[in-house]
Amino acid sequence: MVVLALMALFLVWVVVGVGIWVEVKITNWKRLAEIKSVDAASYRTFKNFVNDIESKTNWNVKIISGLRTKERQKELMRENAKNASVEKSRHVMGRAIDINLYQKNWLSRIWLKKFNSTRDWRNTGVVKISEKYGLLWGGNYRSYHDPVHFEIR
Ligand SMILES: [Zn+2]
Description:
Strands 1, 2, 3, 4 and 5 form a five-stranded antiparallel beta sheet that branches. It contains seven helices and five strands, in the order αααβααββααββ. The chain starts with a helix and ends with a strand. Helix 2 runs antiparallel to helix 3 (40-56). It is of the alpha+beta class. It has a single domain, classed as 2-Layer Sandwich (Muramoyl-pentapeptide Carboxypeptidase, domain 2), CATH 3.30.1380. It has helices at 2-21, 30-36, 40-56, 70-79, 90-93, 118-123, 126-132; strands at 60-65, 96-105, 108-112, 135-137, 149-152. Bound molecules: zinc ion. Residues 65, 91, 96, 98, 149 line the site of zinc ion (ZN). The site of zinc ion has 5 residues, from strand 2.
């Protein structure tokens, strides 16, 4: 009985230990590679921005959107009129990224997404870092809540 209990305990210890040790990164660098193909300077800025977030805050980055085709942007505008037009969207030019932030929490993750408040986003320190790069932040838009959006002016 005691042996079984010890074995069970050992198993739990191993599972939890591995869970803490292995941190699967889901940054999605592919999105930045697409930007590189149209604007190398933007690519460098965003790459440094993401690396800064991951090294200077306790948040990790998942890039959820980068370069968009004109067709995709038109679709987005049809879905939500507040989305930028093709002429205005920096995504089409390869000068904007949308990101989500996450933290490891035991075996799951805590997320920061579009529906989170601008205050939550500010508290991460990410907005401060974006200012260092002179980026425009979607959390500052007056008529549209878009805290996941960062663009090169
Ligand atoms: Zn965006």
